[in-house]
Amino acid sequence: MLIKGCLHTHTTCSDGKLTPQQVADAYEEKGYDFIAFTDHDYLLKPQSIELYREVSSGMIIFEGVELTVFVKGYVHVNRIHGDEEELYILNHLGEYDLGMGQVLQRIETVAEMFPLDAVEITSNGFRNPEYEIPEIRYPKIASDDAHTRLGVGRAWIELDAPRDKDSIIKRIRQGDFWNCYI
Amino acid sequence: MAHRKKNKNVGIIGIGQTKYSSHREDVNQPEMIHEAVKAALEDAGITMNDIDCVVHGNMELFEMVHQPDLWHVIGTGAYGKNCIRITTGGTVGATIACAADNFVASGMYDIVMAIGFQKLQEGHTTGGITNMADPLWFRNLQTGALTGSKAYDVIREFGEERGKRASLMYRIIMDKHACLNSLAHRAFGLEFEQIDELIRTSPKLVGDLKLIDMCSQSDGACAVIFAEEKKAKKISKKPVWIRDHITIHREETFNIFGYDEKFPVQTTMRVAAENLYKRNGIGKPLEYFDVFEMYDPASWWALDWLRDFFLLKGDEHLRLVENKDIMIGGKMPINPSGGVIASNPISATALIRVAEAALQIRGDAGKHQIPSPVRHALASGFGGTMWTVLMMLEKELNW
Questions:
Q1: Predicted confidence (pLDDT) per residue in B30-53, tens digit
Q2: Distance (Å) from the C-alpha of residue A108 to the closest C-alpha of chain B?
Q3: Is A163 near chain B, with CB under 8 Å?
Q4: How far apart are CA A26 and CA A146, in angstroms?
Q5: ipTM over 0.95
Q6: Any residues with CB less than 8 A from the CB of B279 and at least 6 apart, and which?
């Protein structure tokens, strides 16, 4: 089954402008099958998990968090929970203002800290083709990193997988998906 | 222009702002500026035909575009008009307000529009700041606004716990104000109960300056129209009068690092405040002013600067914050708009302070209007090599 999703979105549980329900509705209207709420760890409202779970949607909703990790400056790592599996993605490589050599170093350092599964090669949903290189040995994933309604639906992944969280995570880990952009 | 030597009195007759956001990808630079210009003209009830001169302000190296005033004409409406571009760092917005006021006050023009804008997501602000500092100044100046020195100073004077809690208290009050302002960029919905958690979890930037303490970079534009007295009264039902303004920039930049306790340098904030109040006969600024839109790039600086701007002593400034006197409805509301911490399109930022102070006097600030009458307002700008601009706005032309 071909399904469509985004694994990086923000809500009012941190610095997003839409509530979790509004975010889910915005993606569902665009035909998504799954999304992940990945609000910033340091701004996370105490009741966030409850708010995520109150969302009514026909989509699969992953719960996640965007971790702020110090590696010679701050980088962001998404931790996304499946039923049994966990997915770790190093986010928006293009937003750290680093040269390619430094980016490769950061990836390796983060990989020593977390079981890194993928890297995000979009900045707010815009493609950064310079990171589509074999030297980055991790699956390269496109996401919105949407904070507003305008940011919803710019970039997504499609994959052939059963509609369950762990299957989706396993496919992503294997790099078995397509990046898509508007 | 020297105080009390204005050829003409000057009133603000039109105010326009865009939505402030980290990414205004829905518009290009001229389109974004046009939003503010159109809003200001509509607010004043005039057209571009009535504008004699446009003062355009931005930090062109932040977008890395040369002479933006020329190719922004389609958005500013300045084609065929007298136009001047001003760049003075974070202070730009305040400097263009001063310039527009001076142009009108001198009698050179009757109606002048000041436009401040920044579209930071299209450039590289850090790169711009770094390069503009090098090679003339010391390398350690190149963090630009990202310095933890104020946090260090406050903690040294008042202790770690009190300093950090007061800084976060200020930050959360600004956030509560920003939540009332539909144009604000950052509005998190923070609660006072989160102070301890935020002190613990917010990522450090430099020293004790944390991410939550610091302003973001925003996209946005602001336009303010200034008119000479007769036209201001004819055009606007409630013009806001510019009583006076002062600009102070000194050599303290070169002393801020390697600070010497034995030879403290008086800040440009205090020098500006002392001189401005003295020449206007204001003995108790905290009692005189009804609202203050302060250029507050970080909560630590804001906390410290309250003392200088209001000529306070000891810990009076901390108590203002701790007692929530700076909240809307409090004794001295600071930044009902949410301030710079909430929205920082750099070269518009200080003009926004003037615009928001004027809106408060007019009673047109919407949900973030303070509940008591506003007759006397203060607006500040800050940036560059420790520039401070302080502007007084009045409801009545009676001084």
A1: 999 999 999 999 999 999 999 999
A2: 21
A3: no
A4: 11
A5: no
A6: B3, B4, B244
d(CA B299, CA B212): 9
**Which two three-digit tokens encode residue A148?**
């507003």
pTM of the predicted structure, to 2 decimals: 0.91
Residue type for position B3 = H
Strand A2-9 to strand A34-40: parallel, antiparallel, or no bridges (unpaired)? parallel
Q: How far apart are CA B365 and CA B93, in angstroms?
A: 19
What does the pLDDT look like over B239-273, one tens digit per residue?
A: 999 999 999 987 655 555 545 566 667 788 999 99
A 102-161 residues with CB < 8 A to B: 124, 147-148, 150-151
With the C-alpha atoms ordered B194, B196, B201, B206, is the resulting torsion angle positive or negative? Answer: positive
Alpha helices in chain A (DSSP H): 20-29, 48-53, 100-113, 165-173
DSSP code string of B218-257: -EEEEEEEEEEHHHHHHH-SS-EEEEEEEEEE-GGGGGST
Prior bond of B135 cis (ω within 30°): yes
Backbone angles phi, psi at B99, to 5 degrees: -65, -45
Sequence-distant (6+) residues with CB within 8 A of B256 are: B147, B149, B265, B386
